[in-house]
Amino acid sequence: MNWQAPFYDIGCAILGLGRKFREKTLGYAGLNPGKRVLDVGCGTGVLTRLAAAAVGPSGEVIGIDPSVRMIAIARKKAARLKNGADFRLGIIEQLSFETGYFDVVLSSLMLHHLPPELKRAGLREVYRVLKPGGRLLVVDLDRPGHPVWWLLVWPGLLIPTVAANLRGEIPSYLRRAGFSEVRSAGRWFNLLTFWMADKL
């Protein structure tokens, strides 16, 4: 997604995925000062920076993304805003963090980019780096909640990275990764779902 980096934030805003959407996402995360947070597939870091503001200087927020240009933009914006978020190149299926390090992991509009085997491997890694009692918040494509959406998105059923989302299979991926408490917390435009998954 390197080519999208310069236009990513504008594109999200046009699609209704701007600041209100990010603030809604963060509201479900329930962050408090002092928490350690990982944002996987952080893109240009909008959600990551909001999370850093929520946990304050006593907390720690790290955003990872495989795109060099996304991380470069995220770092530049954080520096300009004097935001404490830390941005690193990284991939969800090979997280370079110790077991049980984070209180919360965020995944916003990332899973639908991954083929099934990487979804499974990545979610297992997320489970590993979460503390017992920690939480994963996922917001991503789900089975459309209105027939009109099916007219627009049905070709996604032919795309291996997207098909599992549109078939409503993300909760089963989360459970197979080890999360025993998985629940839907809300919807956005009847196309995206917010899932919360707890590590007991």
Question: Any descriptors?
Answer:
seven-stranded mixed sheet; globular; alpha/beta; Rossmann fold; 8 helices; about 200 residues
What does this structure look like?
- By secondary structure, this protein is α/β, with parallel strands linked by helices.
- It has a single domain, classed as 3-Layer(aba) Sandwich (Rossmann fold).
- Helix content is 38%, strand content 24%.
- The protein is built from 8 helices and 7 strands; from the N terminus they run ααβαβαββαβαααββ.
- The protein has helices spanning 8-14, 19-29, 46-55, 68-81, 116-129, 147-153, 160-166, 170-176; strands at residues 36-40, 60-65, 86-89, 102-108, 130-141, 181-188, 192-198.
- A 7-stranded mixed sheet has the order 3-2-1-4-5-7-6, with helices on both faces.
- α2 (19-29) packs across α3.
- The N and C termini lie far apart (34 Å).
- The mean pLDDT is 95.
List the helices and strands and how they pair.
Elements: H1 8-14, H2 19-29, E1 36-40, H3 46-55, E2 60-65, H4 68-81, E3 86-89, E4 102-108, H5 116-129, E5 130-141, H6 147-153, H7 160-166, H8 170-176, E6 181-188, E7 192-198
Care to count the β-strands? 7
Helical/strand content category: alpha/beta
Helical run tally = 8
Radius of gyration: 16 Å
**Can you tell me the CATH class?**
Alpha Beta
Order of helices and strands: HHEHEHEEHEHHHEE
